[in-house]
């Protein structure tokens, strides 16, 4: 059974991420825990307590409405919910690192105001701290069959072949073609390591020799390639850092044209 953690803020974006998780993993043998965090900070303890009470009540109502809708539409999925008063990043990371979930699936934008804002700050913060595989779903993305998965790698892709098991799992389930992509100034023999680790998937390899702006070059490639999923490996000094620049501010958001699968080495 696939066990998925989906953080939500009850926005259309997070609901779309929940829908994507179901479409990606299928309704049978799927268990989804829907997580919502709430809380505000105030110098007035009584005011904070009162507002927290309102937020908790609203969250329970919204959660019931969300799960009732999805349970009706997808009766074979096992849904459970969790509502906590805490920081979204620390809560998502703590749950993801328990080993109880196969994937964390997140949207990249969300509601404003008193609700937590699911933008690059939350997604980037989770990715930088968790060891669990994370799938980031762009705002407004519509699921399409995963005929191809692009696996973008650096000069030294990863140290342990087990890191890419989540990629293999998705590729096998969807019978996806895997294309290993290297954005560089010249071809490098290290790419063969990535190919050997997934040779059972019969991967192809492609090189993109771009402008030196990795993020722009990658997105330009994806817009031409029409893949259904992009897989990146996050290492201490790896490819994903060059995309995020280790920024977890509200200004830092993902703008990939397709969902991202982030694995951790």
From TrEMBL:
Residues 2-138 form the UspA domain. It comes from the Bacteria. Gene3D superfamilies: HUPs (3.40.50.620). Belongs to the universal stress protein A family. This is Nucleotide-binding universal stress UspA family protein.
């Amino acid at each position: 059974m696939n066990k998925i953690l989906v953080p939500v803020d009850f926005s259309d974006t997070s609901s779309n991420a929940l829908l994507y998780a179901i479409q990606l993993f299928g309704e049978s043998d799927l268990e989804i825990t829907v997580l919502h965090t709430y809380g505000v900070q105030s110098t007035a303890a009584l005011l904070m307590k009162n507002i927290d009470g309102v937020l908790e009540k609203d969250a329970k109502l919204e959660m019931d409405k969300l799960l009732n809708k999805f349970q009706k539409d997808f009766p074979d999925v096992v849904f459970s919910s969790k509502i906590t008063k805490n920081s979204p990043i620390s809560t998502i990371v703590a749950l993801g690192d328990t080993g109880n979930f196969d994937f964390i699936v997140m949207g990249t934008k969300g509601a404003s105001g008193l609700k937590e804002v699911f933008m690059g700050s939350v997604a980037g913060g989770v990715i930088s701290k968790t060891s669990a595989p994370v799938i980031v779903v762009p705002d407004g993305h519509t699921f399409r069959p995963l005929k191809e998965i692009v696996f973008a790698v650096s000069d030294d892709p990863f140290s342990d072949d087990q890191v890419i098991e989540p990629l293999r799992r998705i590729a096998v389930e969807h019978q996806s073609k895997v294309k290993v992509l290297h954005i560089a100034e010249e071809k490098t023999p290290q790419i063969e390591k990535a190919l050997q680790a997934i040779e059972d998937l019969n991967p192809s390899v492609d090189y993109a020799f771009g402008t030196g702006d990795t993020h722009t070059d990658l997105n330009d490639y994806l817009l031409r390639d029409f893949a259904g999923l992009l897989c990146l490996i996050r290492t201490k000094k790896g490819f994903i850092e060059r995309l995020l620049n280790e920024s977890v501010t509200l200004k830092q958001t993902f703008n990939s044209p397709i969902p991202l699968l982030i694995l951790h080495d």
